Amino acid sequence: MVCHNDLSPKNTVYRDGARGCGRWRSSTGTSPRPASGVAGAVLEAHDWVAAHRAALDSALA
């Protein structure tokens, strides 16, 4: 589930599947989640899919 606590344009919400609730990422794209290597790549892909979920769903419908 993605949290929608703050819909300001300065913040985008993305998934944190382990906690089931979104965290905030700044508009610069930096993530508060420390990750590197393969784990980092997986988290980046997961975040991208979460951020573009509506567009992906409509494109695949």
TrEMBL record:
Residues 18-37 are annotated as: Disordered. This is Uncharacterized protein. It comes from Spongiactinospora gelatinilytica.
